[in-house]
Automatic annotation (TrEMBL):
It comes from Pseudomonas savastanoi (Pseudomonas syringae pv. savastanoi). SUPFAM superfamilies: Nucleotide cyclase. InterPro entries: Diguanylate_Cyclase (IPR050469), GGDEF_dom (IPR000160), Nucleotide_cyclase (IPR029787), Rev_trsase/Diguanyl_cyclase (IPR043128). Gene3D superfamilies: 3.30.70.270. This is diguanylate cyclase. One of its GO terms (molecular function) is diguanylate cyclase activity. One of its GO terms (biological process) is negative regulation of bacterial-type flagellum-dependent cell motility. It catalyses: 2 GTP = 3',3'-c-di-GMP + 2 diphosphate.
Length: 225
């Protein structure tokens, strides 16, 4: 295209004989080819910009969603649980299906941190999270609410079935005998559980009722190691 412009500029100063036809072709021929190449270049540049934009959006979404997962266990965080509760509460209301929540709290967990250190306590929580996942159904969602407290979201689950699942989780925790890394001692665990049925309420209010139910269900226990 620039070549055509250059030939056109030369034509203002240099006059070729009328019987020479190739000058006309040199002036007009490269122009459409240049336009085609320019169009292809703009098209590929646009596609490249779209790809870069998609990559940046994906990376930003990854950074944003990374905060929704627990740093210690392969579970969702409290923020992730609240987001899922918004969706689940709406679905439960629209579909007229029950929605249950189970909270599980390890009894006297601070004694493990005091006796064996926080690193060992983290190992216990990691092992416990894997154990709980293995005892849940595919549609259930397990999140770590805070510290040694876990919450299970049970869609399409009535109160009686939720209590049965809570009991199974409690028994699974009691069957776990964690062996410490340094001393090799076995830590016998126990947990308190509580169940609430979701109503037409906000996630914060539902979690508040769940914690109150757990507080009523707790009892003083003595740990043996």
């Amino acid at each position: 295209m620039f070549f055509s412009w250059w030939i056109d500029a030369l034509d203002e100063f240099i006059r070729l004989p009328s019987h020479i036809q190739w000058g006309h072709w040199l002036e007009s021929g490269p122009m459409p080819i240049g336009l085609i190449l320019l169009t292809l270049g703009i098209y590929h540049w646009h596609r490249e910009q779209l790809a870069i934009s998609a990559q940046m959006e994906k990376r930003e979404r990854g950074f944003r969603e990374h905060r929704l997962y627990d740093k210690l266990t392969p579970l969702g965080s409290a923020d992730y649980l609240k987001r899922q509760l918004v969706v689940s509460l709406e679905e439960s209301l629209c579909q007229q299906q029950p929605l249950s929540l189970v909270v599980l709290d390890v009894d006297d967990f601070s004694a493990i941190n005091n006796a064996f250190g926080h690193a060992e306590g983290d190992e216990v929580l990691s092992a416990l999270s894997h154990l709980l996942v293995l005892n849940l159904r595919r549609q259930d969602l397990l999140c770590r609410l805070a510290g040694d407290r876990f919450v299970v979201l049970l869609p399409n689950t009535g109160e009686s079935q939720a209590k049965l699942l809570a009991l199974e989780l409690q028994q699974a925790v009691a069957s776990l005998a964690h062996k410490t890394r340094q001393q090799g001692e076995r830590i016998q665990l126990s947990a308190s559980v509580a169940v609430v049925m979701a109503l037409n309420e906000t996630p914060d209010n539902l979690l508040r009722r769940l914690n109150l139910s757990l507080a009523r269900a707790r009892r003083p226990l003595t740990r043996t190691a």
